[in-house]
Design a protein that fits this description.
282 residues, alpha/beta, TIM Barrel
């Protein structure tokens, strides 16, 4: 299993000013860094690619949709904006020389709504993501659907819903990205949800229930690593813990969850590696 860290452990958005975080992640023993594409106009693919190649390091990418790019919107122009934005993200991933892209990419992140998702909204999302997946296929980019909790989306809260949407899209480069912070709210079992996704799993966010340091809260880590070990999971898994608020994506960090980013990473990684060893997951 490839173990990494989300850049939000140290920063609130990505630009070339954050390039040194790639060096820091490698120095801390990570296998990769997860780079957010929320502020896409500040992302310099060539600069990131050059730094990654210089360090022989890996990266994955993620984002969320906004009200201007909501592919479940009744407004066809907004849905088109969403498809165009996601295609630009795919191209940014490819131009960096990488292939892993995921997140809350099926609907607006934090959407005020007064009804359960309709068949039409699922179809809007599936049709849009199918177009993006067809585009991504020519670049060998894999796309991951990340279920998040009911307060952050109305469309995909659970692993089973993610699998349903994947089947509606019907493309073999669509995968699933699980996150223990959200699973802690929405799933009945970390183990069962992880096993349900099975071979479709392409990324896993290893988060504590308060998004603080893994191993210091309520998440059932034994169930998670038991499932991953049984699956012989060898894909990406990142700590996604936050130490600050962001202007471009709500993180709701109203108190200090770790002394600083380095403490969060070093203590969290030590715990995760202990769990990997305990369950025989290399």
């Amino acid at each position: 299993m490839k173990l990494g860290i989300h850049a939000y452990a140290w920063c609130t958005e990505w630009s070339n000013e954050q390039l040194d975080l790639i060096d820091r992640a490698k120095q801390l023993g990570m296998d990769f860094i997860e780079i957010p594409l929320m502020v896409l106009n500040k992302y310099d693919a060539s600069a990131v690619r050059e730094r990654l190649e210089k360090l022989d390091f890996d990266a994955v990418f993620s984002t969320v949709l906004t009200s201007e790019t909501d592919i479940t919107s009744e407004d066809e122009n907004i849905r088109k904006n969403g498809v165009d934005y996601l295609k630009k993200c795919v191209r940014a991933v490819h131009d960096t020389g990488k292939t892993n892209f995921s997140g809350v990419i099926y609907s607006q992140h934090i959407k005020s709504i007064d009804h359960r998702p309709t068949e039409q909204e699922y179809m809007f999302s599936a049709d849009s993501l199918r177009e993006v997946a067809v585009y991504a296929k020519q670049f060998n980019v894999m796309i991951g659907l990340e279920p998040v909790n009911r307060y952050e989306t109305f469309l995909v809260n659970t692993a089973s819903q993610a699998k349903m949407l994947k089947e509606m899209i019907g493309m073999d480069n669509i995968r699933i990205h699980l996150d223990t912070y959200h699973m802690n709210i929405e799933e009945k079992s970390f183990y069962e949800a992880t096993r349900l996704v099975g071979d479709d799993l392409m990324h896993y966010h290893l988060c504590e229930n308060d998004r603080g340091i893994p191993g210091t809260g309520l998440v059932n880590w034994d169930d998670i690593f038991k499932a991953l070990a049984e699956m012989n999971y060898n894909g990406y898994a990142a700590l996604e813990s936050f130490v600050d608020c962001t202007d471009n994506m709500s993180t709701w960090v109203w108190r200090q969850l770790a002394e600083n980013g380095d403490t969060l990473v070093t203590e969290g990684v030590a715990f995760i590696r202990k769990m990997m060893k305990k369950h025989g997951l290399s």
